[in-house]
Amino acid sequence: MNVNIPAPRLAAHHLPVWKYLDDLYRRHLVNREGTLASYIPELAAVDPDQFGVAFATTDGYVYEVGDVEATFTIQSISKAITYGLALQDRGSVEVLRRIGVEPSGDAFNSISFDEHNNRPFNPMVNAGAIAAAAMIRGSGLEERFARVQEIFRKFTGRPLALDEDVYRSEALTGNRNRAIAYLELNAGMISGNVDEHLDLYFRQCSLLVTTRDLAMIGATLANGGVNPMTNERALEPEYVRSVLSVMSSCGMYDYAGGWQFNIGLPAKSGVGGGITAVLPGHLGIGVFSPRLDAVGNSVRGVKVCEDVSSYFKLHLFEDRGGGRVPFRRTFRGNEIRSKRIRRLEDAQRLDTLGHLIAVYELQGELSFVETERVTRRIVEDRDSAAHFIVDLTRVMQMDAIGLDLLNTARRALEAAGKTFAIVAHSPRVSDGFQQDVHFSHVDFALEYFEDLLLRESGAATDSETVELAAFGVLTSMRPDSIERLAGQLVPRRFAVGEKLIAQGSAAAELYFLVKGRVDVTVPLPNGKSYRVGSVDAGNVFGELALFGRSPRTADVLAATDVEVLIMDAESMVEMRVEHAAAYTELLVAVGQSLSDRLRRANAEIGALSK
Q: Is 327-456 assigned to CATH 3.30.750.24?
């Protein structure tokens, strides 16, 4: 059999989904099963071999192949949209009073009703769709139809024209629908001008769409009612849920149960040959092929959606391994410390107390499932930690439920005397927790709680002076060697904000910080600077560039008023010549300090890779 297969778009054919779509089209193009709808003469006159498939994502990308520019009437797919408009016009309570949501078990055009509740069974059968059309607000037919066209424009991103021939044919042959409407009027299910309601219904079914339009309708529903191409809201989120619910249970005529069993996506079909399917939060699918099966669904359309759902595992009840993992990593403050280089005594205290700081780095999207796991883990750790840090900087989205659950966990911790802080780049996220303690980087949060632990344990403050003999880096040196070292050092003082070392300058000094704290920063192209670490009194800095004989790689500024003892290159030469043993001890001590820092860094890398 010779078939005409259009070439894929050259600019994007290398994308994996494009390749899959081309293969999908080729596989199903040869399927010639089914017959054209004939109850409306114009539907029987279309080209039966037309075939188009389109995917539209919720971030606004469209994949399409086949006869995607061909226009056809939307028919019953329109029922989902006008149902949504009726919900927005009248509210859920009023609409549910007049239209049910249960599958009827009868054909879509059956003259049957839910007699117990005196209403049509659902909005996807003709009786329910006519009742929905009757609830569209407006001062007359033209205004009401204009409002229908406007909501379709918002869903598809473009104005839709009316197929006058199909509309007239619908009106001339629609006696069964007239019977349904007048029975509804007689039973009090609808009110007003029945002929006007019917005319509006005939018109909505006769709007011309393309395969791409069907995919965009699906993507807009998948995107919570916002068109992902135009960013215009078409339907409120609460009504999107209602529309998708009835599409799931009633959208595919008498194949609704089989569709949910095999494909598992909310969908709506029309006798014009179209199908719209929705993967909530991700994707809209549009398929057009006019040949229909015995219940009125596109044969190719059903097969395509079966293929897509199976291959990509899109069924809503597909086992996806228990949901997304919300944890990027978790650790305690004794495993990973802040980048602040502390005095020996403080570092030893934090080795003992650091486990009281619990850090949770989260990722991805936080809805109920993911946040439930996070809050459960936090509560489980309540007795083994005192300070809790939740890092949200890698969270792409957090819904209101996720925020509420985290706030509930925060309040529970605070009631138990614990401290809770979040890390977030956006002030909007921070404001959602309505608390004073929040940070833009996890390192700042670690440093904050380390300081808190040290204060609670009675550690020294930045204002205290550290004697040279108490420097952790010099503990291996003999007292007489430290005394000879002291003779080579020159004291200097710097006020807050003064620069001790400039990036790019020659490395000619070794600094012994005896009082205060300095920050190590790197200038950024935007004129600001990024703090890469801090150094407390009782530590040496400037040694890497000095012994490596390389330019300084960062700025060092006084974070408080500081006092330093400086050994310049000339003094080092003098000490090497006159006090060789003490000089050797100094080199060994500095080397040991660097080795200890490297060992700790490796241990932290090991902790992060768990």
A: yes
